[in-house]
Amino acid sequence: MSVTAQSVWNNCLKFIKDNIQPQAYKTWFEPIKAVKLTDKALSIQVPSKFFYEWLEEHYVKVLKVALTKELGENAKLVYIIKMENTYGNKQPFTEKIPSSNRTAVKSQDVDIPFNNKNPELKNPFVIPGIRNVKIESQLNPNYNFENFLEGDSNRLARSAGLAVAAKPGGTSFNPLLIFGGVGLGKTHLAHAIGVDIKDKYPEKTVLYISAEKFTQQYIDSVKKNNRNDFIHFYQIIDVLIIDDVQFLSGKTGTQDVFFHIFNHLHQNGKQVILTSDKAPVDMQDIEQRLLSRFKWGLSAELQSPDFETRVSILKNKLYRDGVEMPEEIIAYVAKNIKTNIRELEGAIISLIAQSSFNKKEVNIELAKQVVEKFVKNTKREVSIDYIQKVVSDYFQMDIDTLQSKTRKRHIVQARQLAMFFAKKLTKASLASIGSQIGKRDHATVLHACKTVDNLSSTDKQFKKYVEDLSKKLSV
Prior knowledge:
Keywords: ATP-binding, Cytoplasm, DNA replication, DNA-binding, Lipid-binding, Nucleotide-binding. One of its GO terms (molecular function) is lipid binding. Residues 356-475 are annotated as: Domain IV, binds dsDNA. This is Chromosomal replication initiator protein DnaA. By secondary structure, the protein is an alpha/beta fold. It folds into 4 domains: 5-101, DnaA, N-terminal domain (GMP Synthetase, Chain A, domain 3), CATH 3.30.300; 155-302, P-loop containing nucleotide triphosphate hydrolases (Rossmann fold, 3-Layer(aba) Sandwich); 307-376, Helicase, Ruva Protein, domain 3; 384-473, Chromosomal Replication Initiator Protein Dnaa, Chain: A (Orthogonal Bundle), CATH 1.10.1750.10. 51% of the residues lie in helices and 11% in strands. It has 20 helices and 9 strands. The protein has helices at residues 5-19, 22-28, 49-58, 60-71, 155-166, 186-200, 211-223, 227-235, 252-267, 288-294, 307-321, 327-336, 341-357, 364-376, 384-394, 399-403, 409-425, 430-436, 442-458, 460-473; strands at residues 33-38, 41-46, 76-82, 94-98, 176-180, 206-210, 239-243, 271-276, 298-302. The chain has a 5-stranded parallel β-sheet, with helices on both faces. A 4-stranded mixed β-sheet has the order 1-2-3-4. Strand 7 (239-243), helix 9 (252-267) and strand 8 form a beta-alpha-beta unit. The radius of gyration is 26 Å and the shape is globular. The protein starts with a helix and ends with a helix. Residues 84-123 and 125-133 have low confidence and may be disordered.
């Protein structure tokens, strides 16, 4: 069999896949294309300079070992950087860079003409009748990278955010979609990127807006018959940040207008940053053409912080507030509040307040009282295992039966109810729910949720199942 660039690269990928984390492999190696093989030099195509720099900084050793195994000691790796998104009629920028030769990188700035400076343009952020050329970014300067502490739970998202802030519209992370559960820092990170861009590029127009406010503005523009003004306003933004994009779900008119705005911004090298409480694959009632665009760039997940990161967050918060607290109390709070960062900071603020208002010394007893009240008042997330047990007991079957492949109607309905409540009461993705409830895929879970919704409104007995289980699972 002849040795080709693709066959060599495929063998390298097998080795790399066994030696790095699955998420890292998917993000940094799946987009790479093998281009050609000349003597002992393999040329690979990467989508941006940042991509190349990241590979060289984090994966050069594993790349070297993999390539040496395939081509011998004198193996060489050549990067071909190809920016896929074109600006106007310009050709994609291509540059060859030999591996581990950073000096070969030259900056490539693409001039984007600033069109649409229409004096009649209406800015939805000002009072009607008052013309305001300057667009306020709506950013909160307190949300910055300095107080967004890095940990295993957020490293990819934070690194991608820094890359976007360094070169908005010029990386392969466009759009950058940051997703994760409540209180994990999505809004903070989105603001931090915007704040950093404004610092580095004061001339750029950066705008942060929630999806709900965007929707309301669109509805108002339709009522006032100035939909085109609304679209044109958003088309002049250089960096558009939309928070909680899942709220566009089911709103077909808003989705349609956002689709056109997104296309215009992307084609003109402008940066789009989105946040969501779920991954694109788990979003419901969002048009497929819009979902496909969400997947063009990078989807980076924020997960619950580990113990060390929680301790760092608390120490950083105390330092910023000029408050000292014993290590054992910080450790106690971090150990007992695991759900999200917002609750973690809320508990420490509550502890400081209790101490100062009641003139009590901050000791472990006071920490226990505050944490106990805080945890009690926080809605607890039930586990998928617990949901399966409650549903199985209710229908008088064991969990193995619930998860089985049988198509008996009462078992199928029990399984669909377990999936429905797992989706409703946990932050798990559809794929994760399906995997834990009988090794099903995300499409089966989506179908189960829709079936439960339909049967609840048409079948009285089934509606009673849902009501009974809701009471049993209420937390």
